């Protein structure tokens, strides 16, 4: 499978470290992995007038040479309730919004745990209609990483 790694993302140190480790697991599983030069430009918030043209463009663009794109699901580890109240951007969907807008199948699987034992997410995205590619690679990754055996602590 041809896998592209998104590097044009914002993420904190813990998320980036877990993401980089996940990329290495996928590479070690025999997939062709390369960095993606693509940036997914989003229209101004709420402007969906060009959504159909944008979706056709994305289908002809980066996914002609790539089967699955990898990037962190969120930009930070799970914030506390107090942190989220103080800064709503801590709950930002910046890394996931583009998949919804462009109509791309995406899945998030755990790729590590923060210092509190809460999961950090790896997002896998494919071109429209390639849901099977995303699910197949997500399943392979979870088995190879051994994460189905780990769970966050119950409070």
Label the structural class: alpha/beta
What portion of residues belong to β-strands? 15-25%
Could you say which overall geometry the principal axes of the C-alpha atoms support? globular
Mean pLDDT rating: 85
Give the tally of β-strands. 5
Could you tell me the radius of gyration in angstroms? 16 Å
Number of helices: 5
- Helix and strand sequence: EHEHEHHEEH
Distance, first to last CA: 39 Å
- The level of helicity is 25-40%
Low-confidence stretches: none
**Main β-sheet, spatial strand arrangement:** 2-1-3-5-4
Reported for the largest beta sheet, the result is: 5 strands, mixed
Can you give a write-up of this model?
The protein starts with a strand and ends in a 10-residue tail after the last helix. The radius of gyration is 16 Å and the shape is globular. The longest helix has 16 residues, at 13-28. The mean pLDDT is 85. The protein is built from five helices and five strands, in the order βαβαβααββα. By secondary structure, it is an alpha/beta fold. A five-stranded mixed sheet has the order 2-1-3-5-4. It has helices spanning 13-28, 51-60, 81-86, 97-102, 131-145; strands at 2-6, 32-36, 68-72, 106-113, 119-126.
């Amino acid at each position: 499978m041809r896998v592209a790694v998104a590097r044009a993302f914002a993420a904190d140190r813990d998320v980036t470290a877990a993401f980089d480790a996940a990329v290495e697991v996928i590479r070690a599983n025999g997939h062709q992995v390369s960095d993606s030069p693509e940036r997914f430009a989003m229209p101004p918030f709420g402007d969906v007038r060009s959504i159909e043209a944008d979706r056709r463009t994305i289908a002809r663009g980066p996914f002609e040479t790539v089967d699955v794109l990898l990037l962190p699901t969120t930009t930070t580890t799970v914030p506390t309730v107090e942190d989220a109240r103080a800064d709503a951007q801590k709950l930002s969907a910046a890394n996931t919004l583009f998949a919804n807008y462009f109509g791309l199948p995406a899945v998030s699987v755990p790729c590590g745990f923060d210092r509190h034992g809460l999961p950090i997410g790896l997002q896998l995205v494919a071109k429209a209609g390639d849901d099977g590619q995303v699910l197949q690679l997500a399943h392979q990754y979870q088995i190879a990483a051994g994460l189905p055996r780990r769970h966050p602590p119950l409070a």
